């Protein structure tokens, strides 16, 4: 259903063709057309339709409650694959045709299989001039050259990666240095590029790095979910270049070469101590590069951008995209989901349901069938729990209200002074006090096994060594480490009285 939403958005908001949408979402063009035709016979406008639940959308688009029928057309042979394999020693057309028939039993016969390949071979290696629609395509790649960054404290050298983005119609270029090519850096560079251009393109054409594309082969294209979420936010499609086909991204290949000559070569003898310092230095040279007049056109890339690309770029959303990670999870029996050893609550009616977790460095959002059902602050300490009262059943809410901070303090005071101080300090230092309740209850419950006196002494010792975990306090009790503290505070024995002992008075 998420892909159906993406198809409708790309067609009726971004206004891409069926073929472009098909390549972007890796769905046959006939299926894309079917989805769009089904939507067109409804009475909904696109904005209202996309806000509906996935189940409702499915019922509207497919009232017959059946999956879309597969096309009965014969699948075409993969002529590029045939061309590569037939050059290998011992490989014959009959062998390749048999493999094709095993995969597609309703496919072409051997003679037609060969004919399709020969048609492809006769047209092989033509020279075609690429034409670009204004505001449509943004070509993306990393420079093969990197820039050394010196740590001013340790002298350690790391290599900054150079992100390059080029608009197809004008050649207007954006450059950004990042510490790595990881997903968070890759996506940040995209966000800054869109802001630099003042709008978003309709299609992103990246290379096949793992931060963007998980796989791109005969079976189809699998886009990294974080990158796909960026594209949804800006209403863009993603059409990665074919592997080992540099002609698919010739514009950015030229841009990378030009950036290496006009920017990186100029900065080759400078020493940089941070990526930000490098970006500041490149910004001035980038303006000079974009403003340089192209002799054969008599205009600069900046002029071409203002005339061609700028008026046709999509308007940026009011809120900036925030990088998030994704995880699929099943709601536990205690109506919580686990994320990096921390636990977050969802409404209890979603027990055992599959949910999608989107999380950033500060926020955790939990979705069920594209609907937001819970939001929590991000936790980092293992076993911390964020539980919202409204997510609990009524009987659990009552039990939760009974376990309030004052009740815990009274319980600790009944154990002893050390226990009271320990609990007060634990509640005071906890970032979210409710997340500390479970640990405090587990610690105070040790009274039943070890007794009040031992627990009180153990908590005093735990406070002195600054430990709060249940496991550590149980170890202190088992090994009776709290007795060391008792022995250290006992008074030293006085000097016995004897005729042969002079004492301190003798030396005055």
Q: What general form does the structure show? A: extended
Count of beta strands: 17
What name does CATH use for the topology of the largest domain? Nucleotidyltransferase, domain 5
Q: Architecture of the largest domain in CATH?
A: 2-Layer Sandwich
Radius of gyration: 33 Å
- Briefly, what CATH class of the largest domain? Alpha Beta
Mind describing the biggest β-sheet? 6 strands, mixed
Structural class: alpha+beta
- Poorly predicted ranges (pLDDT <50, ≥5 residues)? 67-71
Count of helix runs: 21
Q: What is the straight-line distance between the termini?
A: 96 Å
Roughly what is the average pLDDT, rounded to an integer?
85
How much helix is in the residues? Answer: 40-55%
Any idea how many domains?
5
Q: Classify the beta-strand content into a percent band.
A: 15-25%
- Would you identify the CATH H-level superfamily of the largest domain? Ribonuclease H-like superfamily/Ribonuclease H
Can you characterise this structure?
43% of the residues lie in helices and 16% in strands. Strands 1, 2, 3, 4, 5 and 8 form a 6-stranded mixed β-sheet that branches. The protein has a 4-stranded antiparallel β-sheet with strand order 11-14-15-16, with no helix packed on it. The protein folds into 5 domains: 2-61; 79-122, no CATH class; 137-312, Ribonuclease H-like superfamily/Ribonuclease H (Nucleotidyltransferase, domain 5); 325-393, no CATH class; 403-488, no CATH class. The chain has helices at residues 2-12, 18-25, 29-40, 46-50, 54-61, 79-86, 93-103, 110-122, 183-197, 225-233, 250-264, 275-291, 301-309, 394-402, 405-415, 417-429, 437-444, 447-450, 452-464, 470-479, 482-488; strands spanning 137-142, 147-150, 157-167, 173-178, 203-205, 213-217, 220-223, 237-238, 293-294, 299-300, 325-330, 336-339, 342-345, 354-359, 363-368, 371-377, 385-386. The chain is extended. Mean pLDDT is 85; it is low at 67-71. By secondary structure, it is α+β, with helices and mostly antiparallel strands.
